[in-house]
Amino acid sequence: xxxxxxxxxKNVRVLLRARASALIVMLGPVLVIFLAGLAFDNxxxxxxxxxxxxxxxxxxxxxxxxxxxxxxxxxxxxxDEEHCVTAIKEGVIHTCLVFSPQFELNKxxxxxxxxxxxxxxxNLVWTVLSTMTSRISSRNQELSRNLTAQVLSAxxxxxxxxxxxxxxxxxxxxxxxxxxxxxxxxxxKVEELDFAVDPNEIGTTEMxxxxxxxxxxxxxxLTIADSSxxxxxxxxxxxxxxxxxxxxxxxxxxxxxxxxxxxxSDLGExxxxxxxxxxxxxxxxxxxxxxxxxxxxSMTQLKARMDAASRVRDESVKDLDxxxxxxxxxxxELLTVQKTLNDVERAVSSVEVTDTETIVSPITTTIKPLxxxxxxxNYLFPTLIVLVVMFTGLLLTPLLMILExxxxxxxxxxxxxxxxxxxxxxxxLTSGGILALQLFVILVIxxxxxxxxxxxxxxxxxxxxxxxxxxxxLLGMVLGVVFVxxxxxxxxxxxxxxxxxxxxxxIIPLETMPSWLAWAMSANPFVLxxxxxxxxxxxxxxxxxxxxEVGILLIYCMIFxxxxxxxxxxxxxxxxGLIKRHA
Length: 583
Description:
Largest sheet: 4 strands, mixed
Shape: rod-shaped
Strand content: under 5%
């Protein structure tokens, strides 16, 4: 063990001979972490420059621009789209926003915002897009809330109007039905009206015939009566002459003559009255004939009117039938409208969600970090530690071993009784000790001067760091055993470090690779070390919860030790074989 300690002192002296190299090896990683802490120990927004172009700026596009300015973005307007895109290529701005022509909320216009981004800056483009789209989405949601509020107001007004008009429509349907029934009743009554007039049934012809017969009878009676009166008067006058010439007594003759005179006088008076009656009857028959003619004429006119009324009745029945059909059709339409209004009312009432915020965002997403976001350094710290340990371990350890191989005392060291195991152990402890010291200083600086939460899980972080130091130190020793010159060792160390870095998720996430390649790259020591430090630094996991990564790194350490032993034994046999041949 004393030999190992002496060899470690010798290795330190070898490093310190080149003071510039020693200073770079010792202070370089610490300086890197310190500068990274100064740069990333904050949560400030990225200083992103945005170009914007619109054919005609209006209130809507200006509101989006104002949101970006309020979010601390540097916004610059360009006169055309081509200049804006060219500015991205020249590095003047990071992204370009182009508003579509007629960018306004009017008549279902196609409102589109086009983002021009430079995907060659992969480490910035997604952050810029995420930050900008979040600001634009907030304005978009605000506009959506306004439009949704208008739609909801229209729905509420429709609902109230439907409720108000529903009763009116019901009354209209009822009145239409009542009107239809009344029209049916009127039709029946009108149809039952009988306007048929038959002059024969009234007897106007028979009345004329009876009038002629009565007139004939009266004329005959008057003629007979007049003839009878004349004959009676003549008979009395003849009788009077006979009495006057008879031989009867004078008293009798006087009495008979007196009676006959009176009778003749009465007959004359009766004849005069009869003539008067005959004249009156003649006049009355003329008047009756005129009256009967008037009655017959009136009856003819009445029949014509009744025929016209009958035709009007028939037409009215047809019109009422048509009105009934129209009323039935309108009733069907009213019932259809009523059903439609009921369906609309049910549809409007079935909208259970009437809150604008809920409609605009039916599912609210809240993004919560797994740990409190204190600074960007929290998330970069595991990657920085792995980078420092990997590059230092792969550069420093081969350097020590090659300096030992190429030193003038290399042959003397090989001939000494000190075993190769002691040399390798001394190299491992020297290089690992330097890395461990750097790691400790880095952890102290990060926990003291920056907001990285290391003190709560310091022991687990330190053990994880020492395991990582051991793994990359042993990998560097493999390079030191394989290569002879410093140039090839440094070139191989840089190449291997770059390969491990590219094959990790520090640049491009492993999830973007093919599944088989991502599975293979997940065994990368860089990836395992990053996961180990991420879980212990960011999530404060204990070593018991990261046993998988610890186990794989221990397996790597044992593999590297086995490779070193095998290679060293082969090189030793080859070296002594050459000595024997020269001897």
